[in-house]
Amino acid sequence: MPIEYSLVVFIHILAGIIAAFIAFAVAIAVKKGSFPHVTAGKTYDISFVTICITGYILDYEKFKNFIFLAESSTIDIIFFV
After folding, report:
1. Contacts from 61-64 at CB under 8 Å and sequence distance 24+?
2. Fewest beta carbons within 10 Å, which of 2, 11, 26, 38?
């Protein structure tokens, strides 16, 4: 597994931990509308966006070879017919 892939997996997991266990817990524990609540909400949003972006990267890396194989086989079928 390349080091870049491992780094993306680490960032993905770290963002999930921050969103699920830290930001969510703080947002529930403090008064709604207070500074810690708003900060926890912004942290949760940033963590969730990070999870989505790294998830797309990991999905692309996982299926990159499958997509290229599918394209080449489609081209072979077109030339065959």
Report:
1. 61/5, 61/8
2. 2
Q: What is the pLDDT of residues 11-43, one digit of tens each?
A: 999 999 999 999 999 999 999 999 999 999 999
Contact by Cβ (8 Å): 15, 56:
no
Please give the full DSSP string across 32-62, using - where no structure is assigned: TTSHHHHHHHHHHHHHHHHHHHHHHHHHHHH
Residue 70: per-residue pLDDT: 55
CA distance 10 to 28: 26
- Give the residue extent of every domain in the chain: 3-80
What letter does residue 2 receive in the DSSP assignment? -
Q: What is the pLDDT of residue 60?
A: 81
Name the token pair of 20: 């699920």
